[in-house]
Design brief:
The chain has 469 residues and is an alpha/beta fold. It is built from 15 helices and 13 strands. Helix 4 runs parallel beside helix 5, helix 8 runs parallel beside helix 10 and helix 8 packs across helix 14. The two termini are 42 Å apart.
């Protein structure tokens, strides 16, 4: 009989975005290595990206237990859904109403700004009050669900995937109640993270103590980046043997039968597919495009740079500035988040693919999960990022080019890319980053955690003094 692993994850279909893929692919392929996943996830998490089509990617027969979550951000999310639904209704009604009978819509800009500020203030309030994150409101229901699952049919090991960090707290609490071995997976850094707001004291101290609590209690800690593994080994040298590096990857099954979607034939279509939420990276790229367009009008008329995905308010503002009249609105296009399969088809139809990473300290360790999908599509890749693991990976690919997070460097790289596009070739011939192989690596970590826990129990049992007489 296969072992049972209880998977605690916040990001799971129908939630969308690249962060879902790591755990989803483990759930898909762990069965091949003798592990049967059982998933705990929120019923309706306060995460804005939704991709219902991803539900078809969850293998048949997998137990998925969706428990209640009372995150305050759900109120904002539900309000936005109602507003969006109202807009669709008004749009449909307007389309069916004769033009002569339509009334102008009165929506004061001041009220819209006030509503946005109110939603942001609500979010900031709960981000400040709740620790380690808003998902902590899911924690008691997730723990209860895990205990019920284990009571009905025992599991053999716990696995949790963060972010959010609450998933690790759930798994840690379940370990304390059940004595099961626990494998904690960090997809990104949390303490001293270059991509998260730097918390003030005492929250900063609480983060450090919580991370240490996780590392001390987990039987194994999996890190998605080699740089992150090295950071943990330096921070916790006495526990360095717990840390295991398992990278992100790609699944060739996602690309089977994919029909590329081309865009604007006759133009060089450079596509970025993903979220824009970090500081500085978008401005460096758009500044580079504007600089290239000024000195090379011939390339300006050919280039189409598309951003496909969600952007935060800062990056929306930057986008609006650069696409204003007289700037580069004829070269750059911003489009909304689309379901995963459509995004893959858009990527397959592009002439080249763009990857971004900010230049903030610590960013050099990041290797985006998107890069691994890019490498399967036989397209040139331009990586705008600081020197580090991610940039070295792209530079090592047959079709890879890179640039510093600086407008002048981006402009030079764009000119080289369009004047002399690299010829992509086979990447990852040995399957190092294939999801099925990475799931086998995780299965080996689960095996080791279970065997080590069994050996410790046996040792404790054998070392007990025998009763006198």
């Amino acid at each position: 009989m296969p072992g049972r692993v209880l998977v605690v994850t916040y990001h799971f279909p129908p939630v969308g975005g690249i962060g879902v893929q790591r755990t989803l692919k483990y759930v898909t392929y762990l069965r091949r290595s003798g592990w049967e996943p059982v998933v705990i996830t929120p019923r309706d998490p306060a995460f804005p990206l939704r991709d219902p089509a991803l539900l078809a990617s969850v293998p048949q027969g997998i137990e998925v237990h969706r428990s209640l979550s009372l995150e305050p951000a759900r109120a904002t999310m539900l309000a936005r859904r109602r507003v969006a639904s109202g807009r669709k209704t008004r749009s449909t009604t307007a389309a069916e109403t004769p033009h002569s009978e339509r009334r102008p819509s009165v929506r004061p800009a001041g009220l819209r700004r006030l509503a946005r500020l109110g939603a942001k203030g609500w979010q900031n309030l709960w981000d400040t009050l709740l620790f380690p994150d808003q998902a902590v409101a899911w924690m008691p229901f997730a723990i209860r669900s895990g205990l019920q699952i284990h009571h009905r049919r025992p599991v053999d090991v716990l696995y949790s995937s963060a972010m959010p960090i609450t998933t690790h707290l759930v798994a840690g609490a379940l370990k304390a109640r059940t004595g099961l071995p626990w494998v904690a997976d960090f997809r990104d850094p949390w303490v001293e993270s270059p991509i998260l707001p730097n918390p003030r004291f005492p929250k900063r101290q609480m983060q450090r103590r919580t991370e240490r609590w996780i590392v001390e209690r987990a039987d194994r800690v999996v890190l998605a980046m080699e740089g992150l593994r090295e950071m943990f080994a330096t921070r916790y040298p006495s526990m360095a043997d717990k840390f295991v590096y398992i990278p992100n990857g790609y699944d060739l099954a996602d690309f089977a039968g994919l029909e590329p979607i081309p865009s604007d034939p006759g133009r060089f279509n450079l596509l970025f597919a993903g979220s824009l939420y970090r500081h500085g990276e978008l401005e460096a790229v758009l500044g580079g495009v504007e600089l290239m367009a000024e000195r090379r009008p011939d390339l300006r008329s050919r280039l189409l740079l598309r951003f496909l995905g969600r952007a935060n308010e800062e990056n929306k503002r930057i986008a609006a500035e650069y696409t204003a009249p007289g700037r580069i609105g004829d070269v750059v296009r911003f489009e909304d988040f689309v379901p995963r399969q459509e995004a893959l088809a858009q990527m397959a139809g592009a002439d080249a693919l763009l990857q971004l990473r900010s230049a903030e300290p610590g960013s050099e360790m990041f290797v985006s999960g998107k890069v691994f999908e890019y490498m399967t599509l036989d397209r040139p890749i331009l990586a705008v990022m600081p020197t580090g693991d991610g940039r070295r990976l792209v530079d090592g690919l047959p079709g890879g080019r890179s640039a510093d997070v600086d407008p002048a460097s981006v402009a030079d790289a764009l000119e080289r890319l369009m004047d002399d596009p690299p010829i992509p070739g086979p990447s990852d011939v040995e399957g190092r980053y294939a999801r099925v192989n990475l799931a086998a690596e995780l299965a080996a970590v689960l095996d080791a955690a279970v065997e080590e826990r069994a050996a410790k129990r046996l040792h404790r049992k054998g070392s007990r003094p025998k009763d006198a007489g």
